[in-house]
Amino acid sequence: MFIEELQELLIDQHSQDIYEDIIEEKLKTLIINTLESVQDTFDYKKGCFELYGFDVMIDEEFNCWLIEVNSSPAMDYSTHITEKLVK
After folding, report:
1. Burial, 10: exposed, middle or buried (Cβ in 10 Å; 0-12, 13-18, 19+)?
2. CA 13 to chain CA centroid, nearest Å
3. CA atoms of 15 and 86, how far apart (whole Å)
């Protein structure tokens, strides 16, 4: 599901933009805290970048739980969502 689809679903269910009002900030905090916790282990190379994929679960109270982080996540067309994202 794309974020916009989740956002619409939550608005329909709660008559409020739960994603923008609650979840988005929690996701940002989770990602920043995760990257800060391992920042000393990164090998920085000028002119390069690394792509990370964060797998997150959101519970009924809109808490965000980190499942795993993938460095260099698969960039194949395994689902209709990844097909659109990868292109």
Report:
1. buried
2. 22
3. 32
